[in-house]
Amino acid sequence: MLESRAIHILTSLAERGPYVPYTGQVSSMNILKARKTYEHLLQDCLSERSGSNQDHNGNSSHLVGLVGCYTLFQYLTLGIDSAVSIYRHIFEKLGEKLGDQGDDTLLEPIMLMHASLLQYHMKKSVYPLNPLRQALLEALKRYPSNQYLWRAYIRIQSKSHHASKTRRFFDSVTRTTKLLEPWLFAIQAEQMRKKLVESVQRGATGDVYSTIPETGLTNRIKALFEHAIETENGAHCPLLWRLYIYFMVSLGNKEKSKGMFYRALQNCPWAKVLYMDAIEYFPDELQEILDLMAEKELRVRLPIEELELLLED
């Protein structure tokens, strides 16, 4: 029912006439006409962008919207393979102008739509994982700051028992960019794997698991944190330091955790949230932390003496 209504809406868009409320199944003739219209519109739009004197930024949103409608229309009427073939055609055409920053920026929302459609189809039907993995890899190589793509990538890779390919990909990206996102998601991927391994090791005796526990994950996560905070962006990122301190606290090593807190203050002395975390993790050091805040001229909402009096009452 919902798919039929979507086909009706997409067909109406192609007809460019007044919208008629949905009354039932769209005829095969109207679907065929709409497909031809979308095909011609896409060809015209790509031809306009290939012109040397065209303002590419002017019709970027138009092309993105057109590709989204056309691929969804093909998916609903012909299937996933037809929609994917359109995306490949778009990537080939726009990829011919890699030196044009406008086209390079234009590819990002189209690659996002491609990945989203594959994910949607995999939820509804049995479909190989590799096309989605390849789509995400190609998109992340071009747009390593896109958080949606990283989340989708580590989500599907967390289901794999072979971490070497994932690690090699993260290593290749972090070597070629100064962005912090690849480091953060590389850390998250290893933490997810560590959590999975720990859940297996805690399993009831006698159960059979396909996952083989790995060793050295804790040291690898520490190494990733250390490499990340050595970068220019990472050294002054409070989020990265908070994650590192939390990880060290979760390991139960209080002294090393405190040392990490003081390292964080050397790089982000202005980040009040670091002091708040430290008060939670190291309650015995409350007065020392408050003194540090006063030294850095960070406001304390309530003097500790007044708080103690209120608690006594």
From TrEMBL:
It is found in: Nucleus. InterPro entries: NRDE-2, TPR-like_helical_dom_sf. Keywords: Nucleus. GO terms for biological process: negative regulation of RNA catabolic process; regulatory ncRNA-mediated heterochromatin formation. Its main location: nucleus. It comes from the Eukaryota. GO terms for cellular component: catalytic step 2 spliceosome. Belongs to the NRDE2 family. This is Protein NRDE2 homolog. It comes from Phrynocephalus forsythii.
